Amino acid sequence: MTRDVRFVSATPVLASLDIERSVGFFASKLGFSSVHAQQGVYGVVRRGAVSIHFWACAERHIAENTSCRVQVDGVAELFEACAAFGIVHPNAPLEAKPWGSREFSILDPDGNLVTFFEPADG
Q1: pTM of the predicted model, to two decimals?
Q2: Can you tell me the distance from the alpha carbon of 78 to that of 64, in angstroms, rounded to the nearest whole number?
Q3: If you count Cβ atoms within 10 Å of the first and of the last residue's Cβ in the chain, which end, N or C, has fewer?
Q4: CB of 83 within 8 A of CB of 71?
Q5: Domains in the chain, start-ordered, CATH in brackets?
Q6: Which GO biological-process labels does this protein carry (predicted)?
Q7: H helix intervals, 1-122
Q8: Tell me, what DSSP letter sits at residue 32?
Q9: pLDDT per residue over 31-70, tens digit each?
């Protein structure tokens, strides 16, 4: 392995049964901007330095077994906004985790689990 390679970022690509609905959900509930939405093909949303991509999938069980983690600054404020929309996963409220983060999770309309976190010392 070369030591001079620097990993810069990662972009989650989530399964979507309805690209336009997925893009709309992330825009309306989480403040992302729609970058691309081609129904039945591919979608992209962006908020700040974070992009999330969606690929068209016809099998809900794939999305229901997919997840990603997104680091944010202001996880408590985001939690409050998501709670107001009623999209916080019932088993994943905001809490401190033993691995050093404060986090909570939501389920998108297709069942993808998205966890938002910040370092506990942040």
Answers
A1: 0.92
A2: 23
A3: N
A4: no
A5: 13-119 (3.10.180.10)
A6: response to antibiotic
A7: 19-30, 60-63, 75-85
A8: P
A9: 999 999 999 999 999 999 999 999 999 999 999 999 999 9
